[in-house]
Amino acid sequence: MIRKELYIFILVLLTGALTILNTGCKKDILFSDGALAFSTDTVLFDTVFTTVGSSTKRFKIYNPSNNPVEISNVQLEGGSNSPYRVNLDGISGTSFESVTIPGGDSLYMFVEVTLDPNNQNMPLIVEDSIRFNTNGETQHILLAAWGQDAYFYYQDEMEIYGNPLPNDKPHVIYDYAFVDSAQTLDIQAGTRIHLHKNSLLFVYKGTLNINGGPAQQDKVIFEGDRLEPFYEDVKGQYYGIYFQEARSSTIDHAIIKNGTAGIHVFGDDPNNTNPTLTVTNTEIYNNSSYGIFNYSGGVIYGENLNIHNNNLYALFVLEGADYNFKHCQFLGLGTDGNQPAIAIKNYFTRSDGITYVGPVNEGAIHNSIIYGDGETQIVYDTITDNGSINIDYAYTYNLIKQEETLQSDPGFSNNLWNQNPGFEDETEMIYKITSSSPCIDYGTNAFAVPFDIEGNARDLGSPDIGAYEIP
After folding, report:
1. Residue 206 in domain
2. What percent of the chain has pLDDT over 70?
3. DSSP 3-state helix, strand, coil percentages of the chain (rounded to 5)?
4. What is the CATH number of the domain that holds 141?
């Protein structure tokens, strides 16, 4: 009995001691009574098209104290009616309660915006703010976006807004917009066309005439619909301009950039007496595949083109098609794996397993620059069909970079081989020749074009080769 009572006494004593020890070791968590710090005081979105969502921006919320801090409330002040959307540490919402940040730590907050149409031609700034209440102190982060209204298309005929298209505000294409069979669309100087991801302008058996001007403000510009600086040089933001069996069309003084295939011509209207497409005074660049893709019977005539920094080819001809270019620049610079500038292939094996072969009845390039990073800038891949197939080629008075020079080939005459064209600044993509370039005065008047890509008069007696005439 004594042993039992002694055991109970000792157990109670130990339990009490542990309780006292645990109570004595426990410390209250001491929260900071200070304010927050932020990586910015304003989240600014550059011009965003109405109805088109922005990219995601973020900022950091810092706790500069060594102790944890509790944010009693974070509030998107516009609430559910705000065009902005916020996410705090992985959680979306418009209001957040009792958010704790450990001492010396931080959280990310993410912000996006989608603006409603403002029925104005000029951009309008749209603002909101995020309010932080911490230890009785209120702090704000300003949200600001420039919203630009536009004409929007989703599987629509572009003629619905008039012919020519108005140029008072941009045109934004989702999926595709089209010029239908037997219809004609004129696009006037200064018009801007923006295409959403994977979208295209589709000319189906119709006619498209793009009529830009030499001044920068008069160019007709095709680019993606994301206008934030990050997207300024991102390739593959949309598909391109697609001509299928189109009636004779024209593109003059345009800029086509950041797509997949800047211009894609498929076939030709058999009733055309002029080329399927005549493209002049135009810069085509930074596309994820091709500058110009001419497929299965298309006919393209070009003057004063500057085609550069496309991932694959500046010019790609597939399954036979015709072309004639004067005073152009086909540049395999900035390509994926030193691809050639020009690739000509007269056949294509389609998904049905049948190989289709087509002729190149005209394949001419004159007074032009064909140059790039790789050693070979012109490649041919051809097969015969029942023993014969027509592959025409005529390259005269060009500067050509080519590992195997072809002086003895009658299809190549009076060309400059493997010389540096002497561009102003390849790093900055300024492909205008300088006064020391071998291209100066080397062209022939037989294929001279009166004005260059900038509208400057050429010396027709001894023109410079390439798209630019240097005084």
Report:
1. yes
2. 92
3. 10, 45, 45
4. 2.60.40.10
